[in-house]
Design brief:
The protein has 478 residues and is of the alpha/beta class. The chain has 15 helices and 13 strands. It is 36% helix and 14% strand. Helix 9 crosses helix 11. The two termini are 13 Å apart.
Length: 478
């Protein structure tokens, strides 16, 4: 099948140049051939596949097969958060975003791998094993939306849905040569999305092109009475309003990254390349100071682990979740056996960290102080956006690390140091491919916009995409 992008597939099915069944069969063959080496898909939608002969591809996403991160409840399809704790959980309902994708005509192909409960930046913390990067099978695909990114990059599905709590869509997109979009907090319903940190989590797409990402966004955005944090705004038309003519737009950038010895030189080169393209396309470039750069990761992990400690307290093996076969002597033993065996190491580490931050003796010193600094960060970004339309910065300090690379916990957490700010402030952000390294590994650039101004960064990304055309590059063998 020569069709490549999600929008190409939609148009071809509408024109009857290819049938929906042919498209699905193409991706099933790709999954059968490549998933054993990638570990991107955890399970297929067997019930749905049995009904493909009667499936009618209509609507905005008519007939597009999508991968879904294993963090979204899907009625009748096992949803585990890639954890032993939810190993047998089959939801009786679907998340709002899943319902909206299906209403838009998308076909749910299956559930994709991720770091357990979305906690990780490398895709190495899943109960079901590591997700590999199709650009180099010895490298990680990024996390926590590792399977979603790997599946799209290897053409196992036309697009995928991920979640982003501190960069979990944008980082895998950066590692896998994809467009990854984290919308404004409140733009998309979180109902039915398994929680990690409620004030930070947001769903978003992983696709090959900006237009594909805009199409999925338009299908899933909008107010939801089941989620009080969603904004009651008019339906979006991002894909119709895409415009690569960005002359006169103001883009802020930060030279502070040049002084950071931890950043890979080719990351800095790619930033310079992007700035040059933007200038040639008529953008006004404004140098700014990055607010509280050294505090972002600390604030993020204090808040996210505290919220995780609270959210994951519901998994105790009573009403649902893993139940140990050991014989407990009392209730304390019962909870201890269930949670110690049901959760993986990284999840337990973050629960412990969050519980400590919320404890009576340390709440004011850690969690409360982090919330105060979060507010200051939000105010600083509001000041920056008084004089610009978007911010350009790196996604990460490096290209995709090796699976077997030994990285200390602190350094691993610092992978998120440039992405967490969009989550702490609730601002929309995206990653798009801008360069291939000398080792043929993808490098992305990050764009951040004011709240509910996704169109700004979509248009700038579209302009860069037209010039650089990195989306046409494919990993060898896929």
């Amino acid at each position: 099948m020569d069709l490549f992008t999600l929008s190409d597939i939609v148009k071809a099915i509408r024109k009857k140049e290819v049938s929906f069944k042919e498209v699905v069969n193409f991706y099933l063959k790709q999954i059968d051939k490549h998933n054993p080496s990638l570990n991107a898909f955890l399970r297929l939608n067997e019930k749905g596949l049995k009904k493909i002969d009667t499936f009618k591809p209509q609507g905005l996403l008519g007939g597009v097969p999508l991968g879904i991160k294993d963090m979204f409840c899907t009625k009748g399809l096992k949803t585990t958060a890639a954890s032993k704790m939810l190993g047998d959980y089959v939801p009786p309902y679907s998340a709002t975003v899943i319902e909206r994708l299906e209403q838009a005509g998308a076909f749910i192909l299956g559930k994709c791998n991720n770091d357990e409960f979305a906690m990780g930046s490398a895709g190495k913390n899943s109960h079901y094993g590591v997700t590999k990067n199709p650009w180099d099978l010895s490298c990680v695909a990024g996390g926590s939306s590792s399977g979603s990114a790997s599946a799209v990059a290897a053409h196992l599905c036309a697009g995928a849905l991920g979640t982003d709590t501190g960069g979990s869509i944008r980082l895998p997109a950066h590692y896998c040569n994809l467009v990854g979009i984290k919308p404004t907090y409140g733009r998309i319903s979180r109902y039915g999305m398994i929680s990690y940190a409620s004030s930070l989590d947001q769903a978003g797409p992983l696709t090959h092109t900006v237009e594909d990402g805009a199409l999925i966004l338009d299908a899933i955005t909008g107010y939801d009475p089941k989620d009080s944090t969603t904004a009651d705004l008019a339906p979006t038309q991002f894909h119709k309003q895409l415009n690569s003519q960005v002359k006169g737009m103001k883009v802020a950038y930060f030279n502070v990254f040049q002084e950071n010895e931890d950043i890979h030189p080719e990351i800095l080169e790619s930033q310079e390349k992007v700035l040059k393209v933007l200038k040639e396309r008529g953008c006004e470039l404004i140098e700014k100071k990055w607010p509280f750069l050294d505090y972002g990761a600390s604030v993020y992990y204090l808040i996210s682990t505290s919220e995780a400690s609270s959210n994951l307290s519901r998994y105790d093996g009573v009403r649902y979740g893993f139940r140990s076969k050991k014989s407990p002597k009392d209730l304390k033993d019962f909870y201890g056996f269930n949670r110690s065996e049901g959760f993986g190491l990284e999840v337990k580490r973050r629960i412990l960290m969050g519980t400590f931050c919320l404890s009576t003796g340390y709440y004011e010193e850690y969690f409360h102080k982090a919330c105060q600094v979060r507010y200051l960060i939000q105010q600083e970004f509001m000041e920056i956006f008084k004089t610009c339309d978007a911010i350009l910065c790196p996604v990460s300090t490096n290209t995709a690390p090796k699976v077997k690379e030994d990285v200390n916990i602190l350094k691993n957490y610092l992978n998120d140091q440039f992405t967490v700010f969009a989550n702490l402030t609730g601002l929309p952000a995206l990653s798009l491919p801008v360069h291939l390294s000398k080792q043929n590994l993808p490098i992305g650039a990050q764009l951040i916009a004011p709240a509910f101004k996704e169109q700004n960064i979509l248009n700038i990304a579209k302009s860069l995409e037209e010039e650089l055309q990195l989306y046409k590059e494919k990993p060898d063998g896929f």
